[in-house]
Design a protein that fits this description.
Structural class: mainly alpha
Shape: globular
Number of helices: 16
Helix content: 55-70%
Length: 368
């Protein structure tokens, strides 16, 4: 007997929508920040670029972990209904096809402006092979791997429910603190061998030092809905999480700017502090965001439903849109924050318009 689909949670949809907006804003800020890690960037935009760097640092501490947690919420029920094999095939369709399309088509479009200058004399195939990588689709790539591992684990359990659907309260505060301490230790130890400045170019993961967080949050997501943790989160828990996140962010920024080499990892005490700060921010802000959206953004009328339905497609197309618009805005001479604001307010509606256009392609809605 098949398990009925879980009801769609509008506030979780709305939170996922907001996280997608944050992704677009994050990459728009990279264009004018001191970090030259985007296919097109303007790193010399004056002192206000430091404000963008601060935004990037704090944002990176939590928002992708929250994305993985949301991605894990409905995986158990989906495997219950479809079985591990059908679930895996669906993940290949929903994640693998967009990933392949990005590497083959969209990533070259993002880098096309640099082709003549960067690779004069290189054949088009050689140039394409040189830049063929997931870019920001590393999230989709990593989520695909996590989903397949989860499906494999469920297959070994021969279809038994991963977690009984039972109403449970949140873990006790001391249990939560112990869990956070244990995760901090794991992150700190991981960063001994994978310091914060590490990049995995072949895999495409730009922040491999966060990998323990991503795996943990996906796993927490697979537990949260069935154990009723989302309903059990209180306003008090949200305020506590927000306070922990503010404190963690302050510690992280202070240590990172005071000791930019020592904080990166390799077993230093600075790395221990920033690991604890990152865990506090990730757990705290995710909990606070869930309560905030459950309390104030639980409804979803047609406008929000349209934006939420197209959010995944926006994630898919936003890179080329940002590069194109940044190139068009290049002649404007303005401080970093001003150019970021101009790019952001221009890019967001264009991204949703482009996403709707892509989803209008026959068969695209089955994937995006």
């Amino acid at each position: 007997m098949s398990t009925p689909a879980a009801p769609r949670l509008a506030y979780v949809d709305n939170l996922r929508l907001w996280l997608t907006v944050l992704v677009v804003l994050h990459h728009a800020a990279v264009v004018y920040s001191p970090l030259a890690v985007w296919p097109y960037s303007e790193p010399d935009r004056g002192p206000t670029s430091i404000l963008l760097l601060l935004f990037l640092v704090v944002n990176q501490m939590w928002f992708m972990s929250a994305f993985f947690a949301i991605s894990g919420l409905f995986a158990p029920g989906s495997v219950d209904r479809k079985g591990a094999r059908a679930f895996s095939l669906d993940r290949f369709r929903r994640l693998g096809i967009p990933l392949l399309a990005f590497v083959v088509v969209l990533n070259p479009l993002m880098n096309l402006h640099d082709y003549p200058a960067a690779d004069t004399g290189t054949s088009p195939l050689g140039w394409w092979l040189g830049i063929a990588k997931p870019q920001y689709m590393w999230f989709v790539e990593t989520l695909l791997v996590m989903s397949l591992v989860y499906a494999g684990w469920r297959y070994l359990r021969r279809g038994r429910p991963a977690t009984p659907v039972v109403a449970q309260g949140l873990p006790r505060p001391r249990t939560t603190v112990a869990f956070a301490a244990g995760l901090t230790a794991v992150v700190w130890l991981w960063r001994i061998i994978v310091p914060s400045e590490t990049i995995w170019p072949v895999v495409g993961l730009p922040t491999p030092d966060h990998l323990p967080l991503y795996v943990t949050f996906f796993w927490l997501g697979t537990l949260a809905l069935r154990r009723s943790w989302l309903d059990a989160l209180t306003v008090r828990a949200a305020w506590t999480g927000a306070a922990a996140a503010v404190a963690g962010s302050a510690v992280y920024v202070a240590v990172a700017f005071a000791a930019p080499v020592a904080f990166a990892g390799r077993g230093s005490w600075q790395s221990l502090l920033t690991s604890a700060a990152t865990v506090a921010a990730a757990l705290g802000l995710t909990a606070a965001a869930l309560v905030l959206f459950r309390t104030w953004f639980a409804a979803q009328g047609p406008p929000l439903r349209f934006l939420a339905d197209n959010a995944y497609a926006v994630y898919f197309v936003h890179g080329p849109v940002l590069v194109l618009l940044a190139l068009l805005l290049a002649p404007i001479d303005a401080p970093a924050v001003a150019k970021f604001a101009l790019l952001a307010v221009t890019a967001l509606p264009v991204c949703w318009a482009a996403a709707r256009g892509v989803r209008a392609i026959p068969g695209a809605r089955r994937v995006l």
